[in-house]
């Protein structure tokens, strides 16, 4: 099915990229915290971004998805849809190794979110 080492390597490469992005953001808002980008656990980084009001950023979303994918990999659940638990198409995972939903559930999720947005305005 999925090669654990290949997936782990892809996820680690993505983590390095996201940590570099985080470092550039932290340098601007809180230079004293720049070590956080190098040494902190993903959960601590996610908590920090919430505290400094950056939870609505793309970086925050990517870190959340990365953390979930790493947890799923550790649990042997990587590649399963978080909604229906069916296999996520390999092509989707190739494009985004942190993908959490199969294409059907992703479409349902997007449709529900659009409805929520309309109801909130």
Automatic annotation (TrEMBL):
The keyword Zinc applies. Coiled coil: none annotated. It comes from the Bacteria. Pfam families: zf-dskA_traR. A zinc finger (dksA C4-type) spans 81-105. Keywords: Metal-binding, Zinc, Zinc-finger. Residues 76-109 form the Zinc finger DksA/TraR C4-type domain. This is Zinc finger DksA/TraR C4-type domain-containing protein.
């Amino acid at each position: 099915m999925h090669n654990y080492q290949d997936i782990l390597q892809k996820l680690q490469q993505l983590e390095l990229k996201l940590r570099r992005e985080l470092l550039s953001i932290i340098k601007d808002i809180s230079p004293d915290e720049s070590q956080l980008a190098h040494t902190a656990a993903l959960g601590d980084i996610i908590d920090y971004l919430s505290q400094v009001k950056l939870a609505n950023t793309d970086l925050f979303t990517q870190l959340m998805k990365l953390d979930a994918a790493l947890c799923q990999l550790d649990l042997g659940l990587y590649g399963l849809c978080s909604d229906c638990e069916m296999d996520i198409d390999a092509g989707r995972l190739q494009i985004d190794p942190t993908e959490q939903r199969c294409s059907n559930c992703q479409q349902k999720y997007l449709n529900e979110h659009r409805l929520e947005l309309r109801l909130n305005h």
